[in-house]
Design goal:
homodimer, alpha/beta, Carbamate kinase, Alpha-Beta Plaits, 10 helices
Chain lengths: 356, 356
């Protein structure tokens, strides 16, 4: 018995049957004597459909109006889920982001949560209601609707769990936990029963799409245990918490990122400060540089190679060409047929030989 | 130049092309130097689609959750219309019912407006913005979303016009004004250029579906001129106001209502108070009785006939049969193959011979 926050993504509520399935999971949790807050995303393709409708009218609409449009998606799913829970005979109420107390800053489409005022949530839980909350959305100081951007519903769920000091925050998805590698690609990938916040953060940063970073960081800060669990397969998922059992595993996971372009400048004259000038120029163009490799070349020259995301590559090359010390005939190579493979695990630091 | 409130129904914003058409009408009005508030309904079949989604999950959902669900429809259309207006290069902001200041009572799905707090509306108009408001919706004292029921967006538009003391409230529809009869059925029906509030009220009560009663009553109370006008055909519509030109017309319109059942009780023993008992019984069963006809029969009996709506007829007959003075073999006839035809016009009272 305790307070449990459950989050269901868009595919988990994609149609009437799935919504009923979620209602079953939620009410089972409630029947066990728990207080339950449920956070849901927009149904299946709703968000994409709404974006398509907008593009038909204006490809350059303000983000304020996009947020107004997109926030309707979660409004539909919370109402439908509340109706499904009612049909099973349980007390329930749906709340929009602002009704659930989400105050955000005014960065439309990528707002940050400033505060969750829990008065209404506590009142409804006090009335023994299952509370269904629209994820992904909040209200800024102007009383305008904002959305939290990618992975926003995860963030909403964790924020509520933190604000209410919930006993657990369960993130239901279409996978049944966190794996050592993508199980669709690696046959003998192993599901982890536990993982630390830091390991999860590294996996998320490196491209694992199970949980987004903001929600893991927030859960770490407030020490809220997260569980990544399947909405379709009722088996225990993966618990993300401060200290995880080591399970004698040095490597927690392997991820790959294919959105990588490697840019190489070969044969730069090696003057002190030249690398600083190059990376400052890229920073001025808002380009994130990931891996950097420098090597000494012949005749007092050096080669500098680095990776950026694919869509940043043309801008990066243009910026480099504009540098005064980059001669017109200096070769700048760009290779987009590369990927970054990352191996994650606390054991990597302490156990020699893991890399091999 | 002045303040104009324009209302567009669901068919006027049914798709991207229609939304752009509305944006054109609105911005043309704005370009003429007017302040403009636009009230819109949900797009085309959105409301019906949402109701169908709900029914798939729960045929008996609470009205609170239905209102939460349905209010998303106008949220989509205000955002899209604002985007369309942006694409034409005009300053605009969309507001949900509660953002536009609509306070209502708590009768979900048929809420009454208690107040329109105009602070935000005035602020946005002061910033020279076109303000796009979600019709049909408001917020109750519990800070829950409510909807206004049938014709709700008309009511929203007129309420804003009243609260802001607008110069005119234009109701755009798919007809180009108020006609003396349904132009789809009566070939030589004539469009009225003006009509009084009272005449419009009678026409609306009697089944003309151009404007709903609540909005006409409100406009009458605050003396706001209404214009019923086509969103597709740019010609002057019909003005509804306190005193209309008489145009030497005795009859303003003819309407018919086919949702009528005539119930007749033949040969009741004529005891004083028997009619009172019959209509009290019907009232106790929440049945609205419209036209009543009593006639004296033979042998100290009388016949009572009245009309009710078709779906009320079975309940009405059952209620009558339960009366102690209605013998089992007393004939109660029910005829559903009837219609009510109404002739409306201020001239009816004063000009003898109009009926003929």
């Amino acid at each position: 018995m305790g307070l449990i926050v459950q989050k269901f993504g868009g595919s988990s509520v994609a149609n009437a049957e799935r919504v009923m399935n979620v209602a079953k999971i939620v009410t089972d949790t409630y029947k066990q004597g728990n207080d339950v807050v449920v956070v849901v995303s927009a149904q299946g393709d709703t968000t994409d459909d709404l974006i398509a409708k907008a593009k038909e009218i204006n490809t350059n609409a303000t983000k304020r109006e996009m947020d107004m449009l997109l926030a309707s998606g979660e409004q539909i799913s919370i109402a439908l889920l509340a109706m499904a829970i009612q049909s099973l005979g349980f007390p329930v109420i749906s709340l929009l982001g602002w009704q659930a107390g989400f105050s955000t800053n005014s960065v439309y489409s990528a707002a940050r949560i400033k505060k969750v005022n829990t008065d209404r949530l506590k009142m409804e839980l006090g009335n023994k209601k299952i509370v269904v909350v629209a994820g992904f959305q909040g209200l800024n100081d102007k009383e305008d609707i904002t959305t939290l951007g990618r992975g926003g519903s995860d963030t909403s769920a964790v924020a509520i769990a933190c604000a209410l000091q919930a006993d657990k925050c369960q993130i239901f998805t279409d996978v049944d936990g966190v794996y050592t590698a993508d199980p669709r690609k690696v046959k003998n990938a192993k599901k982890l029963s536990e993982i630390t916040y830091d390991e999860m953060l590294e996996l998320a940063t490196l491209g694992a799409q199970v949980l987004n970073n903001r929600s893991v960081e927030m859960a770490k800060k407030y020490n809220i245990a997260l569980e990544v669990i399947s909405s379709l397969n009722p088996i225990p998922g993966t618990i993300v918490k401060e200290v995880a059992k080591m399970e004698k595993m040095l490597v927690r996971g392997v991820t790959k990122d294919t959105d990588v372009a490697r840019i190489s400048i070969v044969g730069l004259t090696d003057v002190p400060g030249i690398a600083f000038k190059i990376f400052s120029k890229l920073a001025a163009n808002n380009i994130n540089v990931d891996i950097i490799l420098q090597s000494v070349g012949r005749n007092n020259t050096k080669d500098i190679a680095f990776t950026v995301s694919k869509d940043n590559a043309p801008v990066a090359i243009e910026a480099l060409r504009a540098l005064p010390f980059v001669d017109e005939d200096l070769p700048i190579e760009c290779d987009t047929d590369v990927a970054k493979v990352s191996v994650v695990g606390a054991g990597m630091e302490t156990h020699p030989g893991t890399a091999s």
